[in-house]
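Might I ask for a little of your time on a matter of protein folding? The record follows directly beneath this note:
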Amino acid sequence: MNRVVLAFLGVLLTESLCFGQAATPAPAATPLGHGSFPVKVTKILDSSRLQDGDAIEVETTGSFKLADGMLVPKGSKVLGHVIAAKARSKGDQDSELTLAFDKLNITNSKQLSLKGFVQAVFPPAEEQMGPNMATAGTSQGGSMQGVSPAGIGLTNSKSGSDTQSSSTPQTVMNMKATGVQGIHDLQLEKGVLTSRGKNVKLTSGVRMVVQTEIYQ
């Protein structure tokens, strides 16, 4: 009888310990700041070829510092995924592409967590435009715009793309901008890109302002 009681108490104690371990909350992520920074598309993002959940990668177009002084170099990889991708088919009003950004690789060994979405979209910088890039995704052209990052705790940020032209007035890529700038037949609302065309297609070099919260 005593052995049965002891065995029962042992099982009860084990379950209590397991429950206590399961109930222990995970350490909270340390917030490092929030704001906006510029990136560019390095591989075509096409809503007719992407699927929900697909991994995506873009890169920063300038170096900047976070609020704690940490330097994020130009060309740092920003990793994310597709939330929704849809080509326009019969009966649909628009094609659609929604992206989320999850990780920022500062170095090969240093990675920060993100909660980010697309705040604004700009055409490629002028020096990135080749003979076969007269349009940018669903773009029919537009003024080419330089980059002057001004976002998350930025101090003395280095320009990622300085596209000055003597013949065409150039404007600066504004980190406070929202929506689509200089690209025809493309709309952006609450992080969702839509087009009346058959697909939303962001070609290599298309620039975006990403609004994020960054965590250690």
Q: What stands out?
A: Helices lie at 2-23.
